[in-house]
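Worked Example 4.2. Consider the chain below.
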Amino acid sequence: MSDPAATSISRPSFAELFTPKLVTVLREGYGLAGLRDDALAGMTVAVVALPLSMAIAIASGGTPAQGLYTAIVGGFLVSALGGSRFQIGGPAGAFIVLVAATVQQHGMEGLFTAVLLSGLLLTVLGLLRLGTYIKFIPYPVTVGFTAGIAVIIFASQLRPLLGLALEGDEPGPFLEKLPVLAASLGTFNPWAAGIAAGTILMIVGVKRFRPGWPGMLIAVAVASAAAAAMAAPVATIESAFGGVPRTLPSPSLPDLSWAQIVAVAPNAVGFALLGAIESLLSAVVADGMTGRRHRSNCELAAQGVANCASALFGGLCVTGTIARTATNVRAGARGPVAGMLHALFLLAFMGLAAPLAGYIPLACLAGVLAVVAWNMIEWQALSALFRSSRGDAAVLGCVFLITVLRDLTEAIVVGVALGSVLFLHRLSRMTAVSADRPFVDEDRADGAPDRRQAYDGRTASDPDVVILRITGVFFFGAAGSVGAVLDRIADRHSALVVDLSRTALIDSTAVQTLEMLHRKASRRGVRMILCGVGPEAERALAAQGLAPPAIPFAPDEVAALALARGP
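Applying the procedure from the previous section yields the following structure tokens:
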């Protein structure tokens, strides 16, 4: 029996689970050297986040200003309250599909309500300490839906990439979008396509030859200057949205009527689920790069507060962003102050350079998102999964197709279900039953001994005792195959020893299988003995009535054999 004191010490307290990493860093000692490193890292991340936040917001059906609001308000709170030292919060490309669909269905006011509700849900998930379980999502599922999102993002940028002019609204679903875009190819704008291609080439070139430079910002600046100098006939932020404001708006509550809440509840659940997955994956990436360890439940709670605040300021969904978080780590950040400064730098950029943002062509931002979509696809992981396992490849393919053709939330649910079934199938194949002698007598030549010599020398003196060893995880997935083997026990045995010492887990279905075996053995006059029963298995067996004196227990096979040969 475990020591209660030891158990209480091993379990972290509420304060330990939900203390922001900012507090931890300040307690460790934070000086001017750390502030300098965090300021440089925050500036670097802000330069990357500036064009990306606007591009993601536009692709989501919002305005470029909303992307900046999200990065400033949400990014500051994620770093200040979160459970990761290096997490950078803001709008993410993974949300483009869900946000755009929500705007089309419920309008911008409905989006703000959904973001607020998702924030409340994320906070509850964190406080209920469910962050650990959210991370239990099969790797093929995350790779599949990320690749699917990338395809949808790229498809959503075909119109600005090619400068197409549509007569009506662009359809959201993938299969409906492509015919409409194909019918509009006659409006192809070579200026827009040239600007988009130049932007992509500059981003790729800077990353190739000057990886430390802010390629996206350089490409956007050069493309915008070239388009303005040549008076290119392309849509810009100014012509499409009227420019970017210099300050944050005043906070206000969205529509919280019961009808609105019911209408956007499914969207809010989707935001919360995707936000939890994306943010925790980003935190895990940061942990792998730095050797640190994040607090998942604290991170979820911080993401929830950040989303609530973003909704109040007219922003979009906030989550941890893998690319910007990795940039923060590479730039030498020491702690959460870097993320907080990144948000303040963005606020300063918005106040100083808002008029210049109006000159940015939409085709240029589409080029930025095309690069983002390409980078989202984990090409090496795709190749490795398809080579290593047909089951994983099938799960990945199903999630990818459902994401592109149906719905992201549906894809995650189906993917997790398929991944779980695949895991249980593999687990069941690891469960085996072995015996110290064959279950059925083999054919023997004339003159052979009356009894076959046992394989196990310990039972040679009493061949009527058979030992069964169950290895692996004895659960409902393996109970059928194990039960089929156990059913072959012949009534010629006087005693049956079932060794559970190599069994890692026993569930209720397995206990029921053993109980049926015990009844069958009793009817045939075969004495059944269990050995190597652990504490968890003992409690499960006792609940089913499989406990002394109904059935004897032994610590090991030697003791079990002694019981079998006794009275």
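Residues 1-9, 439-461 have pLDDT under 50 and may be disordered. The chain is about 65% helix and 5% strand. Compare this with Example 4.1 before moving on.
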